[in-house]
Amino acid sequence: MASSKRNKQLYIDAEALSTLALVQEGLIAPVTKLMSEAEAIEVSETKMYKGVPYPFPFLLAPKGIKNETCIKSLNQGDIVDLIHEHRVVGELTVQETFTIDPEERLQCIYGTSDVSHPGVKKTIDRLGSMAVTGEYHVNYPLIAGTKKMVENMIKEQNAKSISALMLAANPLNRAHERMIRQALDQSDMVVLFLLKPFNETNGLRYDIRYEALMTFIENFVPPNKIIVVPLENSYIFAGYNELVLDALVAKNYGCTRLVIGKNHAGLGLYYDHNHLNSIFDTTKGIKIEVNTVEQYVYCNKCRTLVSTTTCPHGQHHHIHYHSPSILQLIQEGMMPPSVLVRREVSASILSALYPNRFSHLQAIYDALMPNVGLMEEHSEEDFYIQLMGLYQTTSLT
User: Fold this and answer.
1) Alpha-carbon gap, residue 197 to 58, rounded angstroms
2) Which residues partner with 191 through β-bridges?
3) DSSP character for 286?
4) Which residue spans of the chain are classified as CATH 3.40.50.620?
5) pLDDT in tens, 168-198
6) Strand ranges in 226-373 using DSSP code E only, listed in sequence order
7) Domain 142-296, what fold?
8) What is the pLDDT of residues 328-377, one digit of tens each?
9) Architecture of domain 8-139
10) Which of 132, 138, 122, 115 is nearest to 60 (CA)?
């Protein structure tokens, strides 16, 4: 889209663009537009919007001297170009502009305005003190495309019971697999929202996590009953607000149930206006079923995955699915034991993280692995899978 010389310009980042698109497609309904000053004040006080729980005002208040100068100069009816990375990605017709208190907004989103909080620190760098509201349109095909894709699959499967899971899968482990299978048992269809942060500095890249997840889906569960949707995890999915937003997104994608782990960070109790609340209180008006699943461990006495509430054995028999520790093994180039991560998943991740790691892969493969005497070409992924098979050979151990 070419920039129009008659329009003033606001510069927005990827998080703002993604969030505007999410709302534009009706995926956080009943929020379908930027809020006016009166609506923002009401939502801040009541945590409700049109009778549905919503934790904070939906506003556009981009930081920067150019942006604030632009917003201060706007009048009702003006058309503003929305610019991202030197391209016009949309436009907004001004209804009104007003000042906001950035500290109060941070408190609404995160429950704190303390700059030591990582979310607060990132948001301060992008949050201005002037907001603009009005009808807008942005071009962001990813979200519109995934919404249509889910709608088509629901129709094709004639699915009535549709479960949603929000997964980082960083990395996908056996406990995640158990949750997915359990959701499949209880549903006609499962929508897996794979979280896609804007800054992936501490984990696996989205494409690596996606390919690992697809390796599991295509080979070990009915692929026609599962669809993977990228969910760009912007600042609005923060703190105890996360599950409220998750529930809204899942419902608006057509899901009837949201499945979460009991150890989910956003599940805890919190105080609001001197009342003790839980996520179940705040999701009552959203009209989606919220189910929790137990924490899974591997018990070396039961010799299988079990929930901590049903296993009779103590913690000293339990192997935990602690994602940061499993990720550290992978980042050091080690294959996690298959009791933690399926070997096909490990192979997918390691071959992507360390391409061309072995200078003479074929020679190593032929020298170590059983074969039928035929010359066969093998990928690094094949090698890792077969290597795990050797690790699991127990006759000499």
Assistant:
1) 20
2) 164, 227
3) G
4) 142-296
5) 999 999 999 999 999 999 999 999 999 998 8
6) 226-232, 257-261, 270-272, 275-277, 289-293, 296-299, 304-307, 318-320
7) Rossmann fold (3.40.50)
8) 999 999 999 999 999 999 999 999 999 988 888 888 888 888 776 566 67
9) Roll (3.10)
10) 132
